[in-house]
Specification:
The chain has 261 residues and is mainly alpha-helical. Helices cover 67% and strands 8% of the residues. It is built from five helices and three strands; from the N terminus they run H-H-H-H-E-E-H-E. Helix 3 crosses helix 4 and helix 4 packs across helix 5. The longest helix has 81 residues. It is rod-shaped.
Length: 261
Amino acid sequence: MLAKKLRHNPGRFRAIVYAVLVHAVLIGLAVIGFRWTVQSPPGEVVQAVAVPEAPTRKPEETNQRAQEEEEARRKAEEADKRRQAEQKQQQQQQQQEEQEKLAQQRLVAERKKQEAQEKERQKRAQEEARKKEEARRQKLSEQSLQEQLAAEEKSRQTAASAARAGTEIEKYRYLIEQRVSRSWNRPVGAAKGLKCEVHVRLTPSGEVLSANVVRSSGNAVFDRSVENAVYKAAPLPLPGDPALFDNFREIRFVFDPDKET
């Protein structure tokens, strides 16, 4: 029905189209205004920033810049290599110190072990020695007692023999001094009170091998007269037991003609 009316009234149709277009424009303007209001608050001024164009570099500047960057990169690499080398050296030094520390600990442990073994060995040796000594004492207790009794008896016999020998030695020393005294002639002008010590070497038969004054009387004539008297008195008297001759192989005695006998 409406279409028929519009065909019969073309002016009205154009008016409707215009009205629709006007409304559409108004609605679009309203939407744009609304968006503008949201994006740009009232009173805020939007300023545009002009970006300057990068200056154009010369080829020489570009090469220098590249060289500087390359030099900086090279120095950075060298510094990094040095740092890595230092770290590696520190790690190696630390490892070496740890190895030395471990080696020292092993040495200390080995030394302590050896000391402990040595102490144990000494302890075992002492224990074995103690046991052996105890066994020896137990085994020889009766034998030791018998030997002790025998030793005491032998000692008594030896003492008795020594006493007899001592008596015999003193007897023959006295006889020798008497024999020399009887063979001595006082030198003319020799004062009384003179005496000297004589060293005499004898043979088993009593013959005199040598006679020397070892402590002078202070009178040379007196000393020579005593030495001559010893030779003159030979052979000197000796004990009949040959075992006692060692006591007369070399003898010393003081010749004192004025001593009371």
